[in-house]
Amino acid sequence: MHILDAQTTNFEKYHDTSVARGVDKTFIRLTEEIGEIAKALRNGDRDNLAEEIADGMAWLLTLASLNDVDAQAAYIKKYGTSECFRCHQVRCICPEERNV
Length: 100
Ligand SMILES: [Zn+2]
Prior knowledge:
The chain is mainly α. It folds into 2 domains: about 1-70, MazG-like (Helix Hairpins); about 70-100, no CATH class. Helix content is about 70%, strand content about 0%. Helix 2 (about 15-45) packs antiparallel against helix 3 (about 45-65). The protein is globular. The structure holds zinc ion.
C-alpha cells in the first residue's frame, strides 16, 4: 500500500466523522496519539509502539485529507530524492540539531 492509497482509504472509510470533527479536533487527536507513542517508547512495549505509530499515521493522513494535502506528493517533494534536501549528500552530514 502506498501513502496515497492509505490516505484515500482512510478518508473514504471515515469521511463523515472526519468532516464533522473538523481540522482543529483532528489535530488534537493527532497530538494525543503522539503522546501515546511517547508512552509506548517509555514502556518498551514494541507491539503497542507499532500500534500507536499506525494510529498516529492515520490521524496525520486524516489531517492531510481535511486540508486537501496529498501526503504522498508532499513527502516525495521534500524527501523523495536519494539525497538530503539540505546538504544534498546521500548520507546526510547535517549537524543533528539541523535534522529537526
Ligand atoms: Zn543533510
